[in-house]
Amino acid sequence: MRVPLIALPVIALPVIALAIVSCGSEPKPVASEAAKKAEPPKPADESFRFATANLVKTEVVDKALLGKTFMPGGTLAHYKKGKREYEMFAAKLASPTDAAILLLDWKKALADAKLIASFGGYFGTDNGKPMFVFSKGDWIAGIGGLPEKEADLESRTLAAHLN
User: Fold this and answer.
1) N or C terminus: fewer CB in 10 A for the chain?
2) What does pTM read for this prediction?
């Protein structure tokens, strides 16, 4: 039996369509897999940079250090001296520019932030707690829970251990 030429496209069309559909590329990765690949590396444990006097513990926080969404991960040190509890933190960034930008984010986040010109940082309150934050090179660091003069003294010791 001969098929008329006019009928060939009608018969062949479903076969061609099936071939095109089955020859597609491999499935694309799920969005969550791509997001995992884009996550920054986990921060290093920088506990050795903190003073050991009155140190209770240190912990490495993967991201949003001190609960601040603008902060990367870093190391948080908890201290207790008598009844007073305070904390220090340090996070290494990709560049000094990145650290300077985060310092400005801290300025906005602190209530009553004031520039401590001799140190190049800001002192204010964060959630009702005194906070002193500074940058040094590609580091952002600070002390929470101490009055300004004590925070200044402790910050100088911490800054000496950052690069």
Assistant:
1) N
2) 0.75
